[in-house]
Each structure stands twice: as C-alpha cells, then as structure tokens.
TrEMBL record:
Belongs to the GPN-loop GTPase family. This is ATP/GTP-binding protein. The keyword Hydrolase applies. It holds the Pfam family ATP_bind_1. SUPFAM superfamilies: P-loop containing nucleoside triphosphate hydrolases. One of its GO terms (molecular function) is GTP binding. Keywords: GTP-binding, Hydrolase, Nucleotide-binding. It comes from the Bacteria. The keyword Hydrolase applies.
Amino acid sequence: MDFRSSDTITGPRSEDVLPTTATAAVKVVIVGGFGVGKTTMVGSVSEIRPLTTEETMTQAGVGVDDNVGVESKTATTVAMDFGRISLSEELILYLFGTPGQERFWFLWNGLFEGALGAVVLIDTRRLQVSFDVIGRLEERGVPFVVAVNTFPDAPHHPVEALRNALDLPDEVPIIDCDARLRASSRDVLLTLMRYLHSLAVPLA
C-alpha cells in the first residue's frame, strides 16, 4: 500500500478511550420486542459514539416481521447495538442491544455470552411482543429488570397489573423510563446493578 506523506492514521477519539481508572467491566444486554426503543436507549446513555447496525426495512420483511403498532418504523437493528457507560470511576458497563425480530434471534447466543444481566424494554401498547423475550431469558437463567418505555400514547398500568400480565416474580424490578433521556436510561442500568448485587449478596 502506498502511503503518501499527507496520509494520517488516527486512533480512537479521546472521549472513546477507556478511562485509566477503570478496574472492572461487565456486559449488559438490552432486549425487547421489535420497535420498543432498544437502539434509542443504547444511544441515549452511551458515553461513546454508539455502534449501530440499523438497516432500512424492505419488502423482504413484509409478512415476516410483526410491525403492528409501529408501522411508521423505517429502520431496524439486524445484528446489535453497542455502547459503553461508566457507572463509577472503576466500573464500566458494556451495553449490547439485541435485534427485536424473531428471525434475528439466532444472534442472541453470542450476544448473551458472558452477560451479567439484562434489561427488558417493553411498550405497554404491545405487551405481547415481550412474552417470548422474557421466556428466553428465564430459560437461560439470565437475571433481568423490566423497563417500561413511556411512549406518549402508551397506556399506563399499575406495576402489579404489569407484573401479573408478564407473569413476573415479585423480586424482579419494574421501572418506568424514557429511553430518549440519558438520566432515565442510566437509572434503569443502576436498578439492574442493584438487583444483581442483591442476588449476589443474600440477606442475612
């Protein structure tokens, strides 16, 4: 390869470099049905420029993907979203957003490898798309919290009504969030960390 004097090789942006104070890193997966806001959450909370694999939706998905309630959606994640957030000077979370359509679920095997826990993002207008997602997490034994993404026209349900509808144990946290807002998404991740800590440290 012919490198000319004007050619430059650049590394990562300064804001993308891992902090030197980091001593521990954990992997968290953001899951949910099609169009619930996973890419939005990763993008809003990530302190680095997020990696996304969104592609324009085509006729190939007609009759295959369930887009009821999100008919205006024009792009979809086909592999994963990736981001990073520092919860403290020492603790780093690596975030992996999964594709929502069932035809891409074969990718979950790799994405869940080594994951400490998961956030299940739900849309109360389409609760049914969350049932299989939660079932797969329970089958894998992956601990998770449920985050209710507050879409403007979404109905609000009491926590216990949601818990019953999703058939969740009492100990699984359910939290409201706005996936567009960094602070709200960060609160969801902190809720997951506290839940994971409670599982690791049994009550005396």
